[in-house]
Amino acid sequence: MAAILGPDAKGLSATPITRLKGVWQEEYEGWNQRSLAGKHYVYVWADGVYCNVRLEGSRQCILVLMGATADGKKELIAIQAGQRASELSWKELLLGVQARGLTIDPALVIGDGALGFWKALRQV
Predict the structure, then answer these.
(1) 1 falls within a domain
(2) What are the φ/ψ torsions at residue 28 (nearest 5 degrees)?
(3) Confidence bin at 54 (pLDDT 50/70/90)
(4) pLDDT on residue 6
(5) Are 82 and 48 in contact (CB under 8 A)?
(6) What pLDDT digit, counting tens, does each position of 103-117 carry?
């Protein structure tokens, strides 16, 4: 913990770490349920980021969706764990942001060559 949080973190025990994790989880859930109604992102970037930490036998994939507004402000639209960067995982993320009110299509969507995102985007 000291490597991540600095020298004052040496005294952290399991109890405060568990409490902090609970607080962070609640904050994430609130952020992840926020309304996106009326948001218009001119540009959207999508990427599946693989972590080298192996959980349950496979590498974790984090799906990230970023957007830029017409005035150039960049915002994190969504981030969630996925099963690889699969079509099904991307579709779940895209349907989630759509259900929260993101209905205005961007002028340009940017992503890598991973086909899962592009297949899901065409469906949603």
Answers:
(1) no
(2) -60, -45
(3) low
(4) 73
(5) yes
(6) 999 999 999 888 899
> Judging by beta carbons within 10 Å of its beta carbon (0-12, 13-18, 19+), is residue 10 exposed, middle or buried?
exposed
User: Residue 101 is part of which domain span?
Assistant: 36-123
Token pair 């859930």 in the structure block, residue = 29
Residue with tokens 């399991």: 14
Q: Tokens 């994190």 sit at which residue?
A: 76
Side by side, which strands form the sheet with 41-55? 74-82, 58-69, 41-55, 108-111
Contact yes or no for 42/70 (Cβ under 8 A) = yes
- Three-state SS at 66: strand
Total domains in the fold of the chain: 1
